[in-house]
Automatic annotation (TrEMBL):
This is UDP-N-acetylmuramoyl-tripeptide--D-alanyl-D-alanine ligase. Keywords: ATP-binding, Cell cycle, Cell division, Cell shape, Cell wall biogenesis/degradation, Cytoplasm, Ligase, Nucleotide-binding, Peptidoglycan synthesis. Residues 135-322 form the Mur ligase central domain. It is found in: Cytoplasm. It comes from Mycobacterium lacus.
Length: 512
């Protein structure tokens, strides 16, 4: 964060000083990072006292100061130097309810203050030349954010969130990672309710907006696809006329957003009707795409270092950002080739010494990303060449959360798709109606073809990740391909980690 005194921060957030005099506050500088985990606090830092699932950050204020924090941003006095903020009320973004365990409103007060601090810092840095890039979409935000960070890294200093820090806490926390040396600030913009993206954009107004797609993620929260589309459209509406909006024009709903932004529009497509577009796409044996990228009169060959055909659009969007910022098409191609998966549990592909390939995409899942993961699994296992020896494939799938009334139908469709893609074994992880629908859909689809009749194929429903791991360890054979995918709440990341860490298995499939 930029150097600010405790007194300056108190003035920005509208807080009062506790256990520190005005004179001391005017001399005490925050020169470190802003943290909400007391274990991450370092010298010169500012600690956020937020409520958690099992504890309250206010209880850790003293230990944060002992670790080097110069002050605490809190909702009440904590016995150490603090900036105390009142309940959020009508000031700033409406953050109440963001923290699940915020029973007394203290979290909303601190988050609202954090948003005001981030807004003030962003405004000063933009005046000094910082370019802010905002990315939204129902799926692919994190992968695209990582690709944008890679291509802009060839042009200057970049700050981007780790993983999926994209909500009312992660967004301003990331903004406050930027310094006067930062050239590009890349921000994911997530939403669970209408107005969320507009609120995030108000904290750090983007000069470049990227809209990837409008799908059914969080349909249960929004209530309708139309509400999702309107919320995603808040990003292009927030970009000023001096900026640029990059739209995935292969999604008709996204393409229509060109009519509601004042900014210049750049369309990316999988055909030659886009401003930035990809020629015919081929995949290598691990489903890494290769294509000719076109931008105006320029073109170059691109070999991606990430996995899955769906990454082509993500890469084109990243390329459009970098080209707008002054990169050459050759710089972009080189950066994309070097950019492998960065964020954990998002299309990370690992081949063990026994030839077992694990596709770890366990962080998040919605119908669109689930279909993309299954297609990548099918490609790695089978490809399109008769010369390739088919590999056995395993789809280990958990629940897709927040689909509302469509949950049963969407899980049923995914089960059926696994059969149509000729996945060898479907392991449905978890109980409940949605997972039963996935298992039942696969069983019904497979009953009519060779998939259901083959002894080595079929679907099985297990209770949890431990049961799935035991099954896989007993039955996986050298050379098999395993996809692990679910919404983060299903907790299948630990299963994927265990599969990657496992040593070779013997030829019969049983562990030594």
């Amino acid at each position: 964060m930029i150097d600010l005194t405790v007194a300056q921060i108190a003035d920005i957030v509208g807080g009062t000083l506790a256990d520190i005099s005005p004179e001391e506050a005017a001399q005490c500088h925050v020169t470190g990072t802003v943290e909400f985990d007391s274990r991450a606090v370092g010298p010169g830092g500012l600690f956020l006292a937020l409520p958690g699932a099992h504890s309250d950050g206010h209880d850790y204020a003293a230990s944060a100061v002992a670790a080097g924090a110069v002050a605490v941003l809190a909702a009440r006095p904590v016995g150490v130097p603090a900036i105390v903020v009142a309940p959020a009320g009508d000031r700033g973004p409406q953050t109440a309810g963001v923290l699940e365990h915020d029973t007394d409103g203290s979290g909303a007060a601190v988050l609202s203050a954090l948003a005001r601090l981030a807004r003030a810092v962003a405004e000063e840095l933009v005046t000094g030349g910082l370019t802010i890039v905002g990315i939204t979409g129902s799926s692919g935000k994190t992968s695209t954010k990582d690709l944008v960070a890679a291509v802009l890294g060839t042009l200057g200093e970049v700050v981007a969130p780790p993983g999926s820090f994209n909500n009312e806490l992660g967004h301003p926390w990331t903004v406050l990672r930027a310094t006067r040396d930062t050239d590009y600030l890349i921000l994911e913009m997530s939403a669970r309710h209408p107005g969320n993206i507009a609120e995030l954009a108000a904290i750090a107004p983007p000069a470049i907006g990227v809209v990837l797609n409008v799908g059914t993620a969080h349909l249960g929260e929004f209530g309708s696809p139309e509400a999702i589309a309107q919320t995603k459209a808040e990003l292009p509406q927030a970009v000023p006329s001096s900026g640029v909006v990059i739209l995935n024009a292969d999604d008709p709903t996204v393409a229509a957003m060109a009519d509601i932004t004042a900014a210049r529009v750049v369309r990316v497509r999988r055909d030659n009707t886009g401003d930035v577009w990809a020629g015919p796409v081929s995949l290598d044996q691990l489903a890494r795409p290769r294509f000719t990228m076109h931008a105006g009169d320029a073109q170059t060959e691109v070999q991606l270092g990430v996995f899955g055909d769906h990454q082509v659009t993500n890469a084109l969007c990243a390329a459009a950002v970098a080209l707008h910022c002054g990169a050459s098409i050759e710089q972009v191609a080189s950066a994309l080739a070097a950019a492998g998966p960065v964020s954990r549990h998002r299309m990370q592909v690992t081949t063990r010494s026994d030839g077992v390939t694990v596709i770890d995409d366990a962080y998040n899942a919605n119908p669109d990303s689930m279909r993309a993961g299954l297609r990548a699994l099918a490609w790695i296992a089978h490809g399109d060449s008769p010369a390739r020896h088919p590999r056995r494939s395993w789809a280990v799938l958990g629940e897709m959360a927040e689909l509302g009334d469509d949950a049963i139908t969407e899980h049923d469709r995914i089960g059926r798709l696994a059969v149509r893609l000729d996945v060898s074994r479907l392991v449905v992880v978890g109980t409940g109606r949605s997972m039963s629908a996935m298992h039942h859909g696969a069983a019904l689809e497979g009953a009519w073809g060779s998939w259901g009749a083959a002894a080595e194929k079929g679907a099985i429903n297990v209770a949890n990740g431990d049961a799935a791991l035991a099954l896989l360890r007993a039955e996986v054979q050298p050379g098999d391909v395993i996809l692990v995918k679910a919404s983060n709440a299903a907790g299948l990341g630990a299963l994927a980690d265990a599969l990657v860490a496992d040593g070779p298995i013997n030829g019969g499939g049983a562990r030594p």
